[in-house]
Amino acid sequence: MSATEVKIKLDIRLKSTNAEFMxxxxxxxxxxxxxxxVDFFYDSERIAGVKxxxxxxxxxxxxxxxxxISGVK
Length: 73
Hints:
This protein has no helices and six strands. By secondary structure, it is mainly beta. Strands 1-2-3-4-5-6 form a six-stranded antiparallel β-sheet, with no helix packed on it.
């Protein structure tokens, strides 16, 4: 979309059943670079971040409980 605004498509499924765990698509995600880190904000809330070879995803489950998923490449 632009250098500071992107569209994100995320599809995370359970390995055992292939059931959807976190499947979302969002436009208008703001990209903020600070040093060697890149953060992604949606509706003023940090939804993800990338630093080096690590990615962190923030979410909220159906019960309103916040959680974080991280991965390393």
